[in-house]
């Protein structure tokens, strides 16, 4: 029975805690925020939902890292969200300082946790967490691809008027406008999506997916939380249940896909040890070029971080 800590009790963090509690698969969730009463309030609210929705996962909120001691998994959502007109990269210096201090505080009380980063700009915040933690690369990774493929699958389901359950999809690259949805690896109950949707319509869906986060920022004045929170909770579930699920995850590459010392989204097998393995696809030249372009964009932001 696991202990999961969620750092940041804002929109995304509170949703991770709430969705995860509903899965009833972990013993305890600790919600941490610098605003301690916010964490305490949201944890108490979700605990009071337990008798209604039938789960036993116990939730507490705190601003004291002592309460996070011996966490198996830590989800980091602390940081500022995007406002209209901001790119994810605009958040870099503020959120990097937050993520680094959070990681250091977490590691004072938990020796070898698995860390899932959600704060943006995602790829670089994951890199910052990895460097600050000194943990193995299999234990520090970021949530982006599960969300981005969910958006892609939802758009495809709307277009085809089918259940999103039946849409399987894969996506590579950074969590930004250069992400690479892969129509060649997208199927609807086994049927290649390219047989069901005309190329121009499919391209429009791919483009909408790439700016899917921005679409919501425009609508709501802040970034999304329901699907991001559920996506992080699904990754926690795969680890806690040792499911060996295959998800696109922001992972440290060490030569895979011809990329070295960079964090970008690739398909991985997720199980009890975190990233059990990275799966290398046989990309065609166009896909390789798009991934390289995305990696270059991530590297630029990583360089900004390295010079900070
Ligand atoms: N330690 C703990 N919590 C912190 C810290 C810190 N050092 N700094 C900020 N926080 C908390 C804030 O107090 C706030 O409650 O992080 C929370 C962030 O919540 P929101 O402002 O609601 O932002 P949210 O929409 O949840 O997004 C959080 O996730 O998806 C990404 O781009 C998004 O980077 C952003 C992050």
Integer tally of domains: 2
The residue-averaged pLDDT reads: 96
Number of helices: 9
Query: Would you count the extended β strands for me?
Result: 14
CATH class descriptor of the largest domain = Alpha Beta
Helix-strand sequence: EHEHEEHEHEHEEEEEHHHEEEH
Gap from first CA to last CA? 40 Å
Q: Give the % helix.
A: 40-55%
Provide the structure class.
Answer: alpha/beta
* Main beta-sheet strand count, sense and barrel state: 6 strands, parallel
Radius of gyration: 18 Å
Which blocks of ≥5 consecutive residues have pLDDT under 50? none
Order of the strands making up the biggest sheet: 3-2-1-4-5-6
The gross shape turns out to be globular
Brief synopsis:
Helix content is 44%, strand content 20%. The chain has 308 residues and is of the alpha/beta class.
Q: Would you give an account of this structure?
A:
This protein is of the alpha/beta class and 308 residues long. The protein has two domains: 3-142, NAD(P)-binding Rossmann-like Domain (Rossmann fold, 3-Layer(aba) Sandwich), CATH 3.40.50.720; 145-306, L-2-Hydroxyisocaproate Dehydrogenase, Chain A, domain 2. It has helices at residues 11-23, 36-53, 92-109, 122-133, 145-160, 199-210, 212-220, 226-240, 285-307; strands at residues 3-7, 28-32, 58-62, 73-76, 114-117, 140-142, 167-168, 171-172, 180-181, 187-188, 191-192, 245-254, 260-271, 274-278. The strands form four sheets. A six-stranded parallel sheet has the order 3-2-1-4-5-6, sandwiched between helices. A three-stranded antiparallel sheet has the order 7-10-11, with helices on one face. Helix 3 (92-109) links the parallel strand 4 (73-76) and strand 5 (114-117). Helix 1 (11-23) packs parallel to helix 2. The longest helix has 23 residues, at 285-307. The chain is globular, with a radius of gyration of 18 Å. The mean pLDDT is 96. Bound molecules: adenosine-5-diphosphoribose.
């Amino acid at each position: 029975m696991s202990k999961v800590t969620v750092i940041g009790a804002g929109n995304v963090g509170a949703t991770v805690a709430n969705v995860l509690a509903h899965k009833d698969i972990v013993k305890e969730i600790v919600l941490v925020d610098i605003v301690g009463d916010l964490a305490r309030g949201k944890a108490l609210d979700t605990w009071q939902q337990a008798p209604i929705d039938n789960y036993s996962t116990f939730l507490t909120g705190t601003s004291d890292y002592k309460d996070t001691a011996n966490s198996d998994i830590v989800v980091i959502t602390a940081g500022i969200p995007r406002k209209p007109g901001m790119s994810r990269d605009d958040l870099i210096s503020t959120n990097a300082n937050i993520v680094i201090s959070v990681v250091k505080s977490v590691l004072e009380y938990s020796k070898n946790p698995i860390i899932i980063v959600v704060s943006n700009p995602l790829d670089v915040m994951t890199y910052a967490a990895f460097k600050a933690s000194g943990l193995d690369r299999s234990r520090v990774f970021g949530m982006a691809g599960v969300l981005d493929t969910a958006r892609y699958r939802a758009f495809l389901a709307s277009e085809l008027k089918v259940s999103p359950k039946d849409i399987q999809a894969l996506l590579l690259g950074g969590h930004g406008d250069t992400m690479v949805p892969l129509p060649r690896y997208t199927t609807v109950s086994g049927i290649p999506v390219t047989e069901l949707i005309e190329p121009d319509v499919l391209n429009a869906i791919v483009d909408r997916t790439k700016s899917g986060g921005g679409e919501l920022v425009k609508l709501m004045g802040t970034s999304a939380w329901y699907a991001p929170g559920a996506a992080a909770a699904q990754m926690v579930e795969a680890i806690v249940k040792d499911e060996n699920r295959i998800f696109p995850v922001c992972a440290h590459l060490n030569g895979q896909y011809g990329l070295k010392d960079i964090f970008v989204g690739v398909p991985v097998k997720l199980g009890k040890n975190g990233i059990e393995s990275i799966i290398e696809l046989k990309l065609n030249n166009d896909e390789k070029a798009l991934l390289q372009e995305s990696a270059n964009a991530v590297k630029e932001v990583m360089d900004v971080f390295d010079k900070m």
